[in-house]
């Protein structure tokens, strides 16, 4: 299923665009070929915590008397895991940002895709300290 982002200034009528230049993308889910049981064993000893809106994983873990484990963020940075812990009612999308993996809160502006889960395609950029005022992070704490 594909989706297009547009504004009233870029369309004539429904899917009739003023120009050939518009932003459409395919809704995809990432998959590593791993099974749920494999994910579970990789998260042994980790408490998966859902942070509050706008909160970093460092802060969310600290509030529980624990520390964020940055080496385990990659295990949570998968649609299959995000969907296990979050609603992801508007899909799961690749994104760039220090606040991932995360879910966009329902109250976020429509252009941010409220209810969508976001994962980062480059695991080496994942950090415990990232946050965004319109997301809730999924955090590995110990």
Helix content: 10-25%
Q: How do the helices and strands follow one another from N- to C-terminus?
A: EEEEHEHHHEEEE
- How would you characterize the largest beta sheet? 5 strands, mixed
How large is the count of helical segments?
A: 4
What would you report as the Rg, rounded to the nearest angstrom? Answer: 17 Å
Q: Structural class of the secondary structure composition?
A: alpha+beta
List the helices and strands and how they pair.
Elements: E1 2-5, E2 11-13, E3 16-17, E4 23-26, H1 36-42, E5 47-50, H2 57-63, H3 73-76, H4 79-85, E6 92-95, E7 102-104, E8 117-120, E9 135-141
Characterise the protein shown here.
It is a single chain. With 142 residues, this protein is of the alpha+beta class. It contains 4 helices and 9 strands, in the order ββββαβαααββββ. The protein has one domain. The strands form 3 sheets. Strands 5-9-7-8-6 form a 5-stranded mixed sheet, sandwiched between helices. The longest helix is centred in the first third of the chain and has 7 residues. The protein starts with a strand and ends with a strand. Belongs to the SPRING family. It is found in: Golgi apparatus membrane. Its main location: Golgi.
Give descriptors for this structure.
single chain, 142 residues, alpha+beta, five-stranded mixed beta sheet, 18% helix, globular, glycoprotein, GT18_cat, transmembrane helix, transmembrane, SPRING1
